[in-house]
Design a protein that fits this description.
single chain, mainly beta, Methylamine Dehydrogenase, Chain H, Cytochrome Bc1 Complex, Chain D, domain 2, four-stranded antiparallel beta sheet, 12% helix, WD40_rpt, WD repeat, metal-binding
Length: 428
């Protein structure tokens, strides 16, 4: 039985009585951190902060399988040849799955930090994994030794193979994009001067890198700078390019998703209501659709040509700050944090832990939140001084191993206002 036949059979069994062409994929218990779609556009794979991955029949809106293996958030997913899939977890492991099997057929160990990205070579033979441990590991899917690539000075946040498979492009919070030829010749580093959180490569080799300053940096296949686009300010945390290379989708931490024409480098439309923040994006090959994975635990389908949501959008944005904080300078600065953190005693955890009672609390101890091993081993107690330092030098420098998007506050008064506000508003 072919892979497509297996998918069709499972979708039929799991969706008896379900409406055709479901518009939203519901099932995760936490923000959707990663998305990938098969080349035929039939199946999506999602990874979540809830430690699970889910295989979906897109048209039926059906969960074909729930994959559980990782001890922490699933940060990265990839589609492999021959009906296989890969997931990468916060605990540093990569799992290889085959549709219809409840357990991984192979587990890859070796990373000393969270897996941040996965990419498959164009010939389908090699799986590359990037990590917060500042390395990339190249694993032959047919078996054999793993090659370890180093060179970045900080966490590697994203990676992709060039269309010809000869070069691996990696992005890092060390403010660079690195080009590593796989024939063993000298690697090249391009300094951008800003932390890079995501990247995608078009079929013609053009590279699109989303950065912490809210800009999309555009480079040629050799790393030559071709331009940049300012998309509103908040850090860009997900970038995807359509299979034909015509469109780019870029998502910011504030939930805005820009659909960009590569030909004229212009934002053609902005998606409205995709869920705050949008952590993941994937175009659906063979269709006019793009999928978004949000902080509201949903995967949504959108029409690329119009920007319309397929079906009604149920807005799930976090509540605004109470009116009592109107005019408070620190509260204004904190608005950028609302997507990931709550302050109230009943607010609970979002993409990040609740800040209620944070002053005097040891790092990585908020109840019910899954932290990386790196954070659990740190000796930091949150005070006004330590929070100020976090935003002065940035999360990746102060708390290496964090999944908090890279951001700093260079203005001393804004930083102090934010710290004072957090201390006041989060007090028990």
């Amino acid at each position: 039985m072919s892979f497509r036949s297996v998918v069709a059979l499972l979708a039929t069994v799991l969706t008896l009585g379900a409406p055709a062409s479901a518009q939203e994929l519901r099932g995760h218990g936490g923000p959707v951190r990663a998305l990938a779609v098969t080349a035929d556009g039939a199946v999506a794979l999602s990874g979540s902060f809830d430690t699970s991955a889910i295989l979906w029949g897109i048209e039926a809106g059906a969960a074909l399988a729930v994959l559980r293996f990782h001890d922490g958030p699933v940060n990265a997913v990839a589609v492999l040849p021959e009906g296989r899939f890969a997931t990468g977890g916060e605990e540093g492991r990569v799992a290889i799955w085959r549709l219809g099997r409840p357990e991984p057929e192979r587990a890859l160990e070796g990373h000393a930090g969270a897996v941040s990205g996965l990419a498959v070579s164009p010939d389908g033979r090699v799986l590359a994994s990037s990590s917060w441990d500042a390395t990339v590991r190249l694993t032959a899917l047919a078996g054999g030794e793993t090659q370890v690539l180093s060179g970045h000075r900080g966490p590697v946040s994203a990676l992709a193979f060039s269309p010809d498979g000869r070069t691996l492009v990696t992005a890092s919070h060390d403010m660079s994009v690195r080009f590593t030829p796989l024939d063993g010749s000298q690697a090249r580093m391009v300094e951008l001067g800003v932390a890079v959180a995501s990247l995608a490569i078009a079929p013609d080799g053009e590279i699109l890198a989303g950065a912490a300053d809210g800009k999309l940096y555009i480079m040629g296949p050799d790393g030559t700078r071709r331009g940049e686009m300012a998309l509103g300010g908040p850090p860009l945390i997900a970038v995807a390019v359509s299979a034909d290379g015509v469109m780019v989708a870029a998502a910011a931490i504030n939930g805005a998703v820009a659909l960009i024409s590569r030909a004229n480098r212009r934002v053609e439309r902005t998606l409205v209501g995709p869920g705050l923040p949008v952590w993941s994006l994937a175009f659906r090959p063979g269709s006019d659709e793009v999928l978004t994975g949000g902080g509201d635990r949903l995967i949504r389908r959108w029409r690329v040509s119009t920007g319309e949501h397929l079906g009604p959008v149920i807005m799930a944005r976090p509540a605004d700050l109470p009116s009592r904080y109107a005019g408070d300078r620190g509260a204004e600065v904190f608005k950028a944090c609302i997507a990931c953190h709550t302050l109230e005693p009943d607010g609970g955890n979002r993409a990040g832990p609740t800040l209620h009672g944070v002053i005097g609390r040891r790092i990585a101890t908020a109840p019910g939140y899954v932290y990386s091993e790196a954070l659990r081993g740190m000796d930091i107690v949150w005070t006004k001084d330590t929070i100020a330092r976090l935003f002065e030098i940035g999360p990746n420098a102060y708390t290496p191993g964090t999944k908090m998007p890279e951001q700093t506050l260079g203005d001393d008064e804004d930083r102090q206002a934010l710290v004072d506000f957090i201390a006041r508003a989060s007090a028990p």
